[in-house]
Design brief:
Largest sheet: 8 strands, parallel, barrel
Enzyme class: lyase
Region (Disordered): 1-75, 344-365
Number of domains: 2
Strand content: 5-15%
Bound molecules: glyceraldehyde-3-phosphate
Shape: globular
Number of strands: 8
Structural class: alpha/beta
Order of helices and strands: HHHEHEHEHEHHEHEHEHEH
Catalytic activity: 2-deoxy-D-ribose 5-phosphate = D-glyceraldehyde 3-phosphate + acetaldehyde
Oligomer: single chain
Organism: Arthrobotrys conoides
Family: Belongs to the DeoC/FbaB aldolase family. DeoC type 1 subfamily.
Strand order of the largest sheet: 1-2-3-4-5-6-7-8
CATH topology of the largest domain: TIM Barrel
């Protein structure tokens, strides 16, 4: 076997390139230095590093450190993260959650059978016959298309201000622009989606994304439930995913999108709502609008019943709500908030758009 020739000595012309030092081993991250593959929940939240653009300019944030430790390796950081786990409550396990979920599902199915059509009267609007200011305050004016430009986001904000919508619901990269644009209109706030539209990013990523969106001015967070883990009945994962984001949001209300189009049974929809509410969600929300379906009156009613026993938890209908009649329909079923890219049409400002932000199936109605 031929041996490699020795590397040439560094020349003065290449003095800026540091030669390899064979006496100093290159750090290799061994498994013992990494987080356990199944860390106990809630996953520790990583300390927030400087926001690339505006972290240190933000009035709520600390001043930059005077020195930055370049020597801190992954090992030390991991140790710090692991030690943070001792400060958080014990995770809830599948063994603990499954019987609770089953009992709740049975109870809500009974409630569903027993409820008559007169039993629920919505109180979010006082007039169900016309588009009022109160109706506008139920609307999250939404633009979540990946191709949304800055100008379109600004136009969304202008419409939200003009019609008095509750929020502008946008992707996190637009949170700063939206919160700045809405700075003088307190009736319209910034709502950022998280883990959108798949819900499949890691819990830590969702926590981090939520923290940054809040630093950028988000006053509400709409996160997507980890759908695959839910469908395989890993309720522990789902509970602790939501719990961790709620904890990271530090009091900013979190809505949990259960993505009804991908949940096939009433039992699944009830279970998803219950877990979200138990984990601290302020809202349960029907759909992203991007996964082949949207809000239906039946689902909204079921979700209202599913969170009835969790005081204060509300229902948001989203995906495919395009007309005033549809908006009133979901409000009568139990929605206190509507996420829609057709807010202006609902208020009578223009005809509903055929193409919208999501892909909700119009036939779902
Ligand atoms: O979360 C909100 C939805 O993406 C809005 O869906 P939409 O564009 O069908 O109104």
């Amino acid at each position: 076997m031929s041996s490699n020739p020795p590397p040439p000595p560094p020349s003065s012309s290449s003095s800026s390139i540091r030669p390899l030092n064979p006496t100093k081993p290159i750090p290799i991250f061994t498994p013992t230095q990494r987080l356990p593959s199944k860390p106990s929940f809630p996953w520790p939240q990583p300390p927030l590093p400087p926001h690339p653009q505006n972290f240190y300019n933000h009035p709520n944030n600390p001043s930059p450190p005077s020195t930055i430790s370049k020597g801190a390796g992954l090992h030390n950081q991991q140790q710090k993260l692991i030690s943070m786990q001792s400060n958080v409550p014990d995770p809830r396990t599948n063994e603990e959650l499954t019987p609770l979920v089953d009992a709740h599902v049975a109870k809500v199915l009974e409630d569903l059978k027993a409820e008559t059509s007169e039993e629920y009267t919505p109180d979010v609007v006082d007039d169900l016959t016309k588009a009022t200011e109160k109706l506008a305050q139920t609307i999250d004016h939404t633009l979540l298309k990946p191709e949304a430009t800055e100008d379109q986001i600004k136009a969304l904000c202008e419409e939200a201000i003009e019609y008095g919508f509750k929020s502008c619901c946008i992707n996190p990269s637009h949170a700063r622009l939206v919160s700045t644009t809405l700075a003088n209109t307190p009736q319209t706030i910034t709502c950022s989606v998280i883990g959108f539209p798949l819900g499949a990013t890691s819990t830590s990523s969702k926590c981090y994304e939520a923290s940054l969106a809040i630093l950028d001015g988000a006053k509400e967070i709409d996160m997507v439930l980890p759908i695959g883990q839910f469908l395989q009945s890993d309720y522990s994962y789902v509970y602790n995913d939501i719990f961790s984001v709620v904890r990271a949001a530090k009091g900013v209300p979190v809505k949990v999108i259960i993505e009804t189009s991908l949940l096939k049974t009433q039992e699944q929809k009830i279970a998803a709502c219950w877990i979200a509410a138990e984990a601290g969600a302020a809202w349960v929300k029907t759909s992203t609008g991007f996964n082949g379906g949207g809000a239906t009156v039946e689902d909204v009613k079921l979700m209202r019943l599913a969170v009835k026993h969790n005081e204060g938890v509300k229902v948001k209908a989203s995906g495919g709500v395009r007309t005033f009649e549809q908006a009133i329909g979901v409000i009568k079923a139990g929605a206190s908030r509507i996420g829609t890219s057709n807010g202006v049409a609902i208020m009578g400002g223009n005809p509903p758009k055929k193409e919208n932000g999501g892909e909700a199936d119009k036939e779902a109605y």
